[in-house]
Design goal:
With 457 residues, the chain is of the alpha/beta class. The protein is built from 13 helices and 19 strands. It has 3 domains: 146 residues, Methylthiotransferase, N-terminal domain (Rossmann fold, 3-Layer(aba) Sandwich); 225 residues, tm_1862 like domain (pyruvate-formate lyase- activating enzyme, Alpha-Beta Horseshoe); 53 residues, OB fold (Dihydrolipoamide Acetyltransferase, E2P) (Beta Barrel), CATH 2.40.50.140. β3, α3 and β4 form a beta-alpha-beta unit. α1 packs across α5.
Amino acid sequence: MIPQEEIRRQAEIASSLRGRLAGKKALVRTFGCQQNEADGERIAGALDACGYTLTETLSEADLVILNTCAVREHAEKRVLGVIGSLKKEKERRPSLLLGMCGCMAQEAHRREQLKRSYPYVDFVFGTDLLHKVPEIVANALAGGGQKQYVNDLPHDQFGELSEGTPVKRTSPYRALVSIMYGCDNFCSYCIVPYVRGRERSRPSDAVLREVRELAESGCRDIQLLGQNVNSYRGELSFPALLERASQIDGDFWMRFMTSHPKDASDELIAVMARNQKIAKHFHLPFQSGSDRVLAEMNRRYTRAQYLEKALKIRDAMPDVSLTSDVIIGFPTETEAEFLETVELVRQVEFDMLFTFLFSPRAGTRAAKMDGQIPHEEQVKRFEYLSAVQNEVAQKRNDRYVGKTLRVLSDGTDENGIPTGRCGQNKIVTFDRPVPAGRFCEVKIQSSRQYALSGTVV
């Protein structure tokens, strides 16, 4: 834990900057997962404490921070493209401060690349140093070239937790609550343990206090986050924490992600099934339907074990929405093994499937494996599986026609259509506006592959 003395010191630095930064604007652009989004809200909170006003417009920004993702090569290339495009803006406005943080900052080869090819980036900081944002900004304002603040300890030693840092949430009625960080699983394709460190959990009372404060403020949708959320190890187990949180007064839903099948216990399923405040949506990545490929991935479960777990979830909660992740074209994956994945998709009937082409990550075992699948073959398999999943998703959504669902309104979309999400985390459009952040009952009249439509009743 970061000592509270250090948290107070950072708050004092932020306070000392307010007069100097009054009227200045900052832009935080986040790439990647919900954990990154939660980190982005903490960065925004620190900048707000320093005196910055948050903006989404680059031309208005006096400070730009890119909060990055390293899970796939495509995500990293996007970030580097954005950094490259900011060079002209920096030349036009030399006083503009540029910073980069997040998972890419933990990769030594990317930090070296930033020094060599992007020296106009003023600062870089790692995934466990968010509490130091006021100090980092103060140092950047002093000038002196690119500064890098990254914990270079081995991945099994770095990683800190901080309580009491400010948060600037993007929504008044939806909230992300990080309850643990890091990962101990070391799947052979995944960079997360190397850039996020080993698993460490926040104190249970701190998590429950945050959930209670959110509920009292009128928050309606609270999502507990972790790289492997159900491996949470505070004073309470994750099922016990979830049950305690669901007993807090207030009209809200609880969600959680992401789960590893090996830790999705019977107790967790039972807690979820018996508590109405826990939304009936379970995200349970399976990655491959082949036992041999699963072993190569170091996933530590078999196809049969995953299938048993998925069907147990459906048996306990017939109205559950089950979603998953799958990797296409893992090294050495044969056509027959890919078809095993397709068959598992048909058996489980996922409501939604997040499908990714295998992306080799420097430093992981899978990046060095022989038998890398050509990109063209990966795309072919991706398209085939997507077509199968589209049929499955349509079939799943057809079952909702005629039913009445509780929906949390998000107001209207960019086309002026009233929209929201139900407890199963499906997009629902409806016939008349409902203020954002309000629950409403919607009778479903029609379905599409990944959305439902109905009338407010």
